[in-house]
Automatic annotation (TrEMBL):
This is YigZ family protein. Signal peptide: none annotated. GO terms for cellular component: cytoplasm. GO terms for biological process: regulation of translational initiation. It comes from Halocalculus aciditolerans. It holds the Pfam family DUF1949. Transmembrane segments: none annotated.
Length: 207
């Protein structure tokens, strides 16, 4: 079963200079690749006059899915810096700290002095480390979402089970009663089975 993972709780930022070049590290949580790429675009727009805006991210591509497998989408680019001198060192920091669902962008304003590949590797890595240090690293538990729809006669039973379980839910009382449930993935199958058994299979479960 998918286990918990480490991520950042919020945005982090750090800046420093190396031989005249300014480096600004940005990190934030991203639940999807779309969120990660949107953050990269936002930083590029904010620092459109920068010499480089170098991205890297590690995102669970099925973090809300129904299966037990977890796949990581890992991405980095050097954005015009020498190959392997920027994006890969940034990704290495995220990997080394075992961070997932996190995106980093390092902005560089060139100061007129070449730093060499080694200097760039150190600077880009440091920018990510410092930006992560500016926020909190937290443990996240993979969640699964599903709906449970029943007639009113069964709604009290279902609500009681959900209130006693380690989950969050919202109830919509219309012609039928629909519960939108968010539960740790490790507990999802057992909770669905409890609902089926308690309603003699009358509950309608959806994604």
């Amino acid at each position: 079963m998918a286990e918990s993972y480490l991520t950042v709780s919020g945005p982090g930022r750090a800046s420093f200079e190396v031989r005249g070049s300014e480096f600004i590290g940005h990190v934030r949580h991203a639940a999807t690749t779309d969120e990660a790429e949107a953050f990269v675009d936002a930083v590029c727009d904010e620092h459109v006059d920068a010499t480089h805006n170098v991205p890297a991210y590690r995102v669970r591509i099925d973090s809300n899915g129904p299966t037990d497998s977890v796949l990581l989408r890992e991405y980095s680019s050097d954005d015009g810096e020498p190959s392997g001198s920027a994006g890969k060192p940034m990704l290495n920091v995220l990997q080394g700290q075992e961070l997932e669902n996190v995106v980093a962008v390092v902005t560089r304003y060139y100061g007129g002095t070449n730093l060499g590949v080694g200097g760039l590797v150190r600077a880009y890595g440091k920018a990510v480390k410092d930006a992560v240090a500016d926020t909190d690293v937290v443990e996240e538990v993979p969640k699964e979402r599903f709906t449970a729809t029943v007639e009113y006669d069964d709604s009290g039973t279902v609500r009681g089970i959900l209130e006693s379980a380690d989950c969050e839910f919202d109830a919509d009382y219309a012609e039928t009663v629909s519960f939108a449930v968010t539960v740790p993935r490790a507990d999802a199958s057992a909770l669905r089975e409890r609902l089926r058994n308690a309603t003699s299979g009358r509950v309608e479960l959806g994604g």
